Amino acid sequence: MSADIQKRTLLVVSDTAMFHDGQDLLVFNPVLRELNVISDMFDEIIWLGARSLTNKRSMTTIDNDKIKAEMLPCVSRSGWVNVLYVLFAYPVILLRILKYLRQATHVHTRAPSHPAWVMIVLSLLDNKRVYAHKYAGEWTDRNIPFTYRVQRSLLKRVRKPNIKVVISGKNEEESANVHDMENPCMYENELTAMNEATEEKIFSQSLKLLFVGNLIPTKGILELLQALSSNELSSKIESLTIAGGGRLHNEVVKQAENVNRVKVKVLGYMSRTELNKQYKDAHVLILPSSSESFPKVVAEASAFGCIPVTTSLSAITKKVKDGKNGFLMDSNSPENILKTLNRVAACTDLKHVSTEAVKMSRLFTYKRFKSRMAQIYEIDAPV
């Protein structure tokens, strides 16, 4: 630590959405919850996030005086327009980071993203601060964009003791710089209330499916709707509720209207409270992604006794075991989704699978997260 640094300051650099509604700065609530949990480990937290063009229900105001947030340029527009925005945004991102980096003792980034790319390069030149680079993408899949592969490759090769890499689903052969961590999403008291909801679920009759996530191609939502249109789908599958928004929203709504085998509802973005009601009502969480780390929604849904049905991706397979606490698909093709859903419908012990999913969800508490982050940041965390 530099001699002129008098307090412990965490700089958070991410692409998580921020939006100014003309009066208040709104931030992504799941990340705010994480920062609130670890805020007593620091004197100050400076959070640089990405400017969003829209206000979403998952956004809220900051309720912690220790946390100061500031927006970076938006680089999530589509097409060639976004290329121009990226070129102009990088100097702004760099200058904004350098402005706050000099007062930081610890740095946390969320990769893969444009801000994280800048921060990863800077960390390779810095020996004074403790860096924790969280790679939230798929750690082993080759089917990812080039810029994602570059960031992941750098993080896999880093050996500097002050740089820690955080992933979900570490393999035994990974270096000591790589740390495995579950994405937190529940306080202890929330978990208890969620688990109680599982007792009322009946799996012997019809099954209600729930999809939660961004409506983008890699989430497999269009493939799911195609699978649900098949005449070979089990009659036990009653409905699908879609919670989330994105650039495929209009196409999803259109295709949903053409699905006659089951009832489909497209609800758009939802608050955490609204989403909890959907978890409580659903029997199965269906996530046919083609690329994913370990989405929090798997843990959240499992806490309510929703059985996770997901694609067999590396981080997910570390926690979800096929036929035991969930079901895994070989791929997200409509044929594989259909085959797996029919396998779920034919299972005579879904209540037991649900109970095992609940047990798995208990790994994803903020208490465990705080303890792990204290180890990574090399800080004695308050109880």
Q: What's the β-strand tally?
A: 15
- What is the overall pLDDT average? 91
Low-confidence stretches: 1-5
- Spatial extent as radius of gyration: 21 Å
Which overall shape is indicated by the principal axes computed on the Cα atoms? Answer: globular
Broad CATH class of the largest domain: Alpha Beta
| Main sheet summary | 9 strands, mixed
Assign the CATH topology of the largest domain: Rossmann fold
CATH architecture of the largest domain: 3-Layer(aba) Sandwich
User: Which range best describes the helical content: under 10%, 10-25%, 25-40%, 40-55%, 55-70% or over 70%?
Assistant: 25-40%
Content of β-strand:
15-25%
Quaternary state of this entry equals single chain
Description:
The strands form 2 sheets. Strands 1, 2, 3, 4, 5, 6, 7, 8 and 9 form a 9-stranded mixed sheet that branches. This protein has a 6-stranded parallel sheet with strand order 12-11-10-13-14-15, sandwiched between helices. The radius of gyration is 21 Å and the shape is globular. Strand 10, helix 6 and strand 11 form a beta-alpha-beta unit. The two termini are 25 Å apart. The longest helix is centred in the N-terminal third of the chain and has 23 residues, at 79-101. Helix 6 (221-228) runs parallel beside helix 7, helix 6 crosses helix 11 and helix 9 (296-303) crosses helix 12. The protein folds into 2 domains: 9-184 and 365-377, Glycogen Phosphorylase B (Rossmann fold, 3-Layer(aba) Sandwich), CATH 3.40.50; 188-361, Rossmann fold (3-Layer(aba) Sandwich), CATH 3.40.50.2000. With 383 residues, the protein is α/β, with parallel strands linked by helices. It has helices at 29-38, 79-101, 114-124, 146-157, 188-196, 221-228, 249-257, 272-281, 296-303, 314-317, 334-346, 350-361, 366-377, and strands at 9-20, 25-28, 44-51, 59-61, 67-72, 106-111, 130-135, 163-167, 178-180, 207-212, 237-243, 263-268, 284-287, 307-311, 327-329.
